[in-house]
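Lab meeting notes turned into a lecture example. A postdoc, R.K., suggested we walk through two folding results consecutively so the class can see how the record format repeats. The first protein's sequence and structure tokens come next.
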Amino acid sequence: MAASNNKNTAFPKLFIVSALLLLCCGLVFGLIGGLQYIIPGFWRNTLSFEKVRPLHVSSMVFWIIIALVGVVLSFLQQHGTRRNYSPFLLRAQLILLCLAVLLIFISYFRGLFGGREYWEFPPYISIFIIASWILFLVNVIASLITIKKQPVYIWMWLTGICFFLFTFLESYLWLIPYFNRHLVNDMTVQWKSYGSMVGSWNMIMYGSSIFLMDKISGSKTYSHSRIAFLLYFLGLFNLMFNWGHHLYTVPTHPYVHYIAYAVSMTELLILGRMILTWRQSLTAAQKFRHNIAYRFLLFGDVWILLTLVLALAMSIPAINVYTHGTYITVGHTMGATIGINTFLILGMAYNLLTDECREPNRKIIIAGLNLANIALFVFWISLIVAGVLKAAWQMNPERLPYAAMLDSVKPWLISFVVAGFVLTTGLLMIVLPLLKSYLSCYFTSHLFSLRSLNAKKQKRELSLE
């Protein structure tokens, strides 16, 4: 089927295409960084680890952010709102985001830093990100006819967009002397902003997942249900307050630690809800087993469960003392970024990019998805085991040399890197056919539109003669 000729409908999908290209970049940088873990000095003179790590992190973070923008804008149109309040603002937003990513990559390749973790690029580049996000917020709000009796995903989108803007600005408070002159206050605000920022884009993503589930099932019962809104408010509560478990080792006010622990434990309610509805998920899986997008949601659901169990364990102070600063933290981040964020967003991307185009080869996509999940589990377990070994070394009173610890974890790091190669292969088996299918459809459609316009123009000229 040809792609839609409506440019307003097709343009938001360019955000998703741009994001998929960033995902490919992030996977390549991740492989290079993994090799540098186990091969000392690998590409040290051309692309050292101090450059590869922020290149990988920024690619993956912006893959999530830019893809979610495209998903929300596309689903918003299908929700039945006005068609794109301002196409001009959409184009300006995409240009600003792409310009920001380009400047970030250039600065990293040149070795120009100046920011903080996750945002290690020079701070002036953040102006482009802030401006693009304000345009995003304006477009979404202006596209809604009314906010009354809206389903839960609309509230999730609005909440996530507003909180991302707030926390992103908050993450730059270190530029103000009042914060950067006081180490404890600086670290507290910095980790608070990062924790809530992840919660903000998770809010957008979960709202989009609910929309997609409604779309697949053909029912809007759940998105208007009381339980959906209760879970929304629980998620909002966690977004605002559960960041404190990152600060157990920081000598800040004790009540921050107590509140953080109490709020983190409320996630047990989410875990309980997931277990109770697991049978329903299996029933739905049988019903929609032929829907590729649903497979992504199902695997994402599995990784939400696994990551939540690990997160709950890390939120217990007695365990956090051991896990903090080990490979377990990296494993938790990777499980969330790939297992939850990437699989869920890929499901949405697949649904949107194949809406009006021919589907890519289903066998390759399913094989890639299965391969990626198996590899990710090995990848995740390897990091957890390596983290346990490092935690034992950190707490060992004999203070063994760091080199001895590295020797003990090296087999697990090799397993982590090998699994990373297989994981990358699986994800590329999904992304590349999807990009090829959509771009072929997109350019064919536009070429057809251009020929149609030329044919009409020629007819008009002949009629005038």
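The second example is placed directly after the first for contrast:
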Amino acid sequence: MRIIRGAEEARRTILKRQPLAETELPAHIREKNAALFGEDLPLEQQVRRILKDVRAEGDAALRRYTKAFSGADVDALEVTRAEIEAAYEHVSPEIVEALQEAADRVRTYHERQREHSSQSFSYEGIGMVVRPLQRVGLYAPTSPGAIYPSSVLMTAIPAKVAGVEELVMMSPADADGAMSPLKLVAADIAGVDRVFKAGGAEAIGAMAYGTESVPRVDKIVGPGGLFATVAKREVFGDVGIDALHGPTETVVIADEHANPILVAADLLAQAEHDELATSILLTTSMKLATAVSAEVEKQLATLERGAIARAAIEGRGGAVVVDTIEEAAALGSEFAPEHMCLLVQDAPALAKTIKNAGGLFMGDESPEVLGDYAAGPSHVMPTGGAARYASPLGVQDFLKITSLIDVDGAALQSAGKAAAIIARAEGLTGHARSMELRLKPDASSS
């Protein structure tokens, strides 16, 4: 693991962000897609072609791209209730119980969040009505060797708590055309209404535009790979989206008292997600950085996804040694990571100085992995520096506000004169007349 000295060098190297659309696809994906499209197209052009085909051809394009990307021949795209019930037979009772417990905790958290979210109100005829969205599409990603039933819980439950009428989930099938039993059980526990077998840009296109099998949704939420993420950006406007989720990222701020074994484990827990994941240590101790580097190497040899984790650590990971813990906090806030772990002596005090992070995980007993699965808050968090202005997925993402204006004559007289004056100042005499006729009722008959 590389170790970098100083904030400026860190900004120039491992803390330098790359625009999503400029991300270089791995060679094996480029070769496969070049064969599919007949040429080595940039990522955005590939996604646009997929979306265009799905919009024009519907299910036929969805099946064709599903076959091309996953090797699965999927006849019936929608997962039946019988398949969902059968999935329980392939998932151990222990895992089902764990999913249910995690779901209960996520549901409880978001029910409490709902109680404190914006609520409908009216004051002197002016107010707002808060309503849930009618139909939401959930994208549930899959990567080689990883299923992510947790992502199903973390997207579906906040939507259900918000009161969304119908939840539609899209997720890739395996090469045999089957959906992971783990994912189906999680979807059932979370309250997903309909499940379809497709992934990537084609799945996003199907939810955005609708096909013969897939209903069009009002909003698409959930993390995904590069193709799904770029597709979400392309369809925004035709449909709502929660955010553009890039590869996962973690910044660990640690002082000289931190346990290098735990620091390394926290870095690798995120690095094993994806070759493009970011795992960075910010510390005041060169001794700790050196020990963590050695421990990362030791633990890599024990991970089933060690090759992926190594590629992430070597490509976008490393340690930065700075002079003070305050400088580490400022540098971490500037980077605005998805996850920030504070393995320092006084984590609550340091947390007060952190301005930007999707989630703060304070101390050895509050690891980021707990947030991934069962702490309660959704693990769908802002990436790519979006924590500067965005929040984790929650109930608020599934609610919309309708302004309410229902005033009486006194309020009309009070505010109407100002409205008419402003309208005339803007040169909109039709606006002004509409108001003035109401201010002088006798004029409405002339």
